[in-house]
Amino acid sequence: MQIEQIYTGCLAQGAYYITSNGEAAIIDPLREVQPYIDRLKRDSVKLKYIFETHFHADFVSGHIDLSKKTGAPIIFGPEAKPEFSFISAKDGEDFHVGNITLKTLHTPGHTLESTCYLLIDEDGDEHALFSGDTLFIGDVGRPDLAQKAAHMTQEQLAATLYHSLRKKIMTLPDNVIVYPAHGAGSACGKNMSKETVSTIGNQKQYNYALRANMTEAEFIKEVTEDLLPAPAYFSANVAMNKRGYDSYETVFNNGMRALDPDEFEAAADDIGALILDTRNNGDFYKGFIPQSVNIGLNGDFAPWVGSLIADVNQEILLVTDEGMEEETVTRLSRVGFDNILGHLKGGFAAWGKSGKETDQVDRIKAEEFVKAYDNHHTVIDIRKEAEYNSQHIEHAENKPLADINTWIKDIDPAKHFYIHCAGGYRSMMAASILQSRGYRNFSEIEGGISAVIDSKIIMIKN
Q1: pTM
Q2: Would you state the pLDDT for residue 414?
């Protein structure tokens, strides 16, 4: 028996590849499935089942393409009603893979169809739990995402999750290994650990939601408080996972169309496509195509795309570093942004050589900001509320980047302001969005609050 966690940092997502005696199972696969197929061939094993723990909201799973290419059936737990061929597993039903068994444990609460799979090894021992979004390391799945589909309040779903955990999960032996679907950085929970593997015993000791004497009322209160709004793309990804989607190859081939500057400009003008520039912020601010939005590939790219671009059907034109086109298209497809028209051939350098119009962001050094700053200046801190509360510039306003489509309407276009994040990654996203919407009355602080702290400006600690 072999278990491999295939972890994707950009999504903080764990897929699982399991083999035993010539057969394999894959749990919650990513959108691009060729790496799994290559691995199956290399290991000389046959894919017997594709298991899905629930209808994912934060990424598009590869279950449909993988099933088409391998012939392996897709398995969902009870209550799932996808619009394609699948096996509806009963609670407690066993599925055999080689010499091991995967037992279905229906654990509603995060969603009604949420299901864990308990691996029973060759010796008949309960060995590992693939817990999906029911149980994370240090947290549990948020109960507010499926309210509409379930016709239940988040409190009712939380109560359902409370009983699922105590009747199905906490009764397992302490030495059972826990393999969750996500880790720290995912929006599917709020207190996830950076660790991606644990045990039932460890979680009963350290996970706040599994306290032995915790009442249902206490659980509901603690699990539902301080939940941030779900990213805009979540509902679209659920629909794609439930109804189906274009093949990854189709999306990839469209995105890999290389457009020269004239073709690129025509597509942007005629179609009204969004220009997404994925270069790092240090290159972007020096020069970019007017109206471009910068979301750097070297960061939490896919989740930020999903949070900042409201419509997954938005037509997109890409500007990337040369050689990064394939990676960019792949990451966009993972969160359902499939309408990619192509990329700028030769990158931004080709645009510059063409003599076409370019733009820049007014980025200033932290030292310049410190020299000019006084309490009458407006400073917008776009970090998360918890970051702001930890330490911030005196009199700075907290306007998280995730909410920019709301607070941008309150900006006075006649009054200058400064904008910053922790290190420059997020503030350049905000700067590009502001300029794309006509706001130019600001300066972005290079290096963010980290650089400002080094400059010894007065800070407040909350």
Answers
A1: 0.92
A2: 93
The CB density around residue 314, as the number of other CB atoms within 10 Å, is 15
Per-residue model confidence as pLDDT tens digits over 119-132: 999 999 999 999 99
Structure tokens at 419: 């904008």
Q: Is 240 part of any domain? A: no
DSSP 141: -
Please state, in angstroms and rounded to a whole number, the distance separating the CA atoms of residues 248 and 406: 33
**What is the extent of the structural domain holding 315?**
246-353
Asked whether residue 223 falls in the same domain as residue 153, the answer is yes
| Domain-located, residue 358 | no
Tell me the C-alpha distance between 31 and 20, whole Å: 24
In a shared domain, residues 178 and 80: yes
Instruction: Return the residue matching tokens 């009204």.
Output: 272
- Are 129 and 118 in contact by the 8 Å Cβ rule? The answer is yes
Half-sphere exposure of 330 (CA within 13 A, CB side): 14
The total number of structural domains in the chain stands at 3
CA distance 45 to 60: 25
Q: How far apart are CA 180 and CA 216, in angstroms?
A: 23
Number of Cβ within a 10 Å radius of residue 412: 10
pLDDT at 461 over 80: no
Q: Which residues pair with 14 in a beta bridge?
A: 7
CATH of the domain at 302: 3.40.250.10
Beta bridge partners of 117: 104, 130
What CATH code is carried by the domain that includes residue 196? 3.60.15.10
Q: State the pLDDT confidence band at 332, using cuts at 50, 70 and 90.
A: very high
